[in-house]
Specification:
Length: 115
């Protein structure tokens, strides 16, 4: 099995996409909220560094553990093509789509409401 197929089977790409979308949304909200609070400019930089470190951790956890309806379980390495695995993949896809829609909506609102 190739590395790309294994990454896809373990949902590493989905977790990475979901994490990146949520992290981008958090940076946008953080930038918007931290300015009125008059916090130093470095707080946004710290937030970005923490989210970047969390990205690495999320990808490693996605590689090691498998998301099941019962929670996280250590990946045994066996190919699991059951209906439950399909349901988990579907729920990850829905979470990614919802997060991206919120992010695009947030971007559009902040871009066009400032005018």
């Amino acid at each position: 099995m190739s590395l790309l197929a294994e990454l896809k089977r373990r949902n590493v790409f989905r977790v990475a996409a979901l994490y990146a979308a949520v992290a981008w949304l958090l940076v946008q909200v953080g930038d918007l909220v931290l300015q009125p609070l008059e916090l130093p400019a470095w707080t946004v930089k710290v937030l970005i560094v923490l989210l970047a470190a969390g990205f690495v951790i999320a990808v490693v956890v996605a590689w090691i553990y498998e998301v099941t309806p019962e929670g996280l379980k250590r990946d045994s390495g066996a190919l699991d093509r059951t209906i439950l695995a399909s349901a988990v993949r579907r729920s990850l896809n829905v979470a990614i789509a919802v997060t991206l829609l919120v992010a695009v909506g947030w971007f559009a609102w902040s871009r066009f409401s400032a005018d």
